[in-house]
Amino acid sequence: MFKNKVFENIFSLGVSQIANMAFPFITMPYVSRIIGPEGYGILNYSTAFIGYFVLFILYSFDLSGTKAISRNIKDKEFVNMAFSEVIYSRCILYLISSILFMLSLFFGKALHKDYVVSIILFVGLISSVFSPQFIYQSFQDLKIFSKINLIRGFINMILIFLFVKTKHDYFYIPLFTTVFNIFINIGLFGYAKRKYSLKLIKQPLNNVFGVIFNDRFIFISNVIGAFRTTTNTIILGFFITTKEIGYFTTSINFLFVVVNVFFIPISTAIYPFISNSFSKSVEVGNDVVKKIVPITIYFYFFTSLCLLIFSPLLITFIFGNKFDESIKILQTIAFVPLTMGLCNLLGVQVLLNYNFDKLYFRINLFCNIVGLILNFFLSKKFGYYGAAWNLIFIDVLTIVLCFYFLKILKINIIKWKYFSPIVIKSNLISIIKAKKLN
């Protein structure tokens, strides 16, 4: 039986993400002044490109694998089979990615300027094959991530100060990231196998491809969802200078510092909690969602408001006066934490837990096709401001469509009395005091 570890996991993931971001915050003022906007542009362009391979290798298993295991956590045979299917599938996806990456190096002109950075980042993708997040997430045991990331962040900070001395030393940053990711993920993978007595069962190829095929809708939804960030950067590369990309990606990366610290811990921790609630009954799961909706909306609205108000102070303090142009961009996208939080709540937490994978996929596909077409026009016409507006537009369109289809399906996730601060406090206390999930 599980103890309710939702808030414990949110806290642990929050500490983990703070560690991931706090140490870069310390190094950012130093690094930004050495490598400048152009160096940041090179790093961020390569990172955005390699990000597609990360999505491909991770596939949808942090969602589908977590949901399957958390709903059958007591069935040891099922857990081992699901665990093995994920790992073998990722191995196949990594081999396919290797072929695609080599082709992109030969034919992708944009990568020729910084192919060393791209190669370093791609080598690090072996860590994605053994990424154990879905395992720890399924067992609602995420405390270890905070400890590991504190140690990694401190060592990485020291190495950056020691090795990054000139504007040509920017390649050390992805190098350190690659090395740490490989060792940490493989180590956590081995530890999870021992702790939960997991067995890696050999999977036939037809079974592996069957798993990949069955999860295609969630995977494609994740990929096209990534268009909201990475594709903006890729498209901008056709219309603006590397220096201007540096301005845009600085604001985007700072935004996702906020998202990683506040958004990811909450969404990651509540997903298995909601999924387990739906395993009891649809009614129980729906009631849990209704209680969580107002809590997340208030929290993300306050976070976005703070980001809007304090953007000038934060950008100037961290990056220096050379990045003043990033302030207006960050203010334009300040409410993305709120819109992104609503997209995740309606799509991942609700539609996927109701098993509407195809609907989730179709909504994301439509919104991102519209956003992709519009992004070319806006980026060409308005530069990085156009890309920023497009980011907001896709989120808002997704939210509207999710609400529309939930209404058609007669799924009501809004209970207005739960928006009362007094009721929110009561619901928080009841969740914290809950001793068991089943």
Automatic annotation (TrEMBL):
<feature type="transmembrane region" description="Helical">
    <location>
        <begin position="252"/>
        <end position="274"/>
    </location>
</feature>
<feature type="transmembrane region" description="Helical">
    <location>
        <begin position="82"/>
        <end position="103"/>
    </location>
</feature>
<feature type="transmembrane region" description="Helical">
    <location>
        <begin position="170"/>
        <end position="192"/>
    </location>
</feature>
<feature type="transmembrane region" description="Helical">
    <location>
        <begin position="12"/>
        <end position="30"/>
    </location>
</feature>
<dbReference type="Pfam" id="PF01943">
    <property type="entry name" value="Polysacc_synt"/>
</dbReference>
<feature type="transmembrane region" description="Helical">
    <location>
        <begin position="115"/>
        <end position="136"/>
    </location>
</feature>
<dbReference type="InterPro" id="IPR002797">
    <property type="entry name" value="Polysacc_synth"/>
</dbReference>
<feature type="transmembrane region" description="Helical">
    <location>
        <begin position="384"/>
        <end position="406"/>
    </location>
</feature>
<protein>
    <submittedName>
        <fullName>Polysaccharide transporter, PST family</fullName>
    </submittedName>
</protein>
<keyword id="KW-0812">Transmembrane</keyword>
<keyword id="KW-0472">Membrane</keyword>
<keyword id="KW-1003">Cell membrane</keyword>
<dbReference type="InterPro" id="IPR050833">
    <property type="entry name" value="Poly_Biosynth_Transport"/>
</dbReference>
<feature type="transmembrane region" description="Helical">
    <location>
        <begin position="217"/>
        <end position="240"/>
    </location>
</feature>
<feature type="transmembrane region" description="Helical">
    <location>
        <begin position="332"/>
        <end position="352"/>
    </location>
</feature>
<feature type="transmembrane region" description="Helical">
    <location>
        <begin position="42"/>
        <end position="61"/>
    </location>
</feature>
<dbReference type="GO" id="GO:0005886">
    <property type="term" value="C:plasma membrane"/>
</dbReference>
<feature type="transmembrane region" description="Helical">
    <location>
        <begin position="359"/>
        <end position="378"/>
    </location>
</feature>
<keyword id="KW-1133">Transmembrane helix</keyword>
<feature type="transmembrane region" description="Helical">
    <location>
        <begin position="295"/>
        <end position="320"/>
    </location>
</feature>
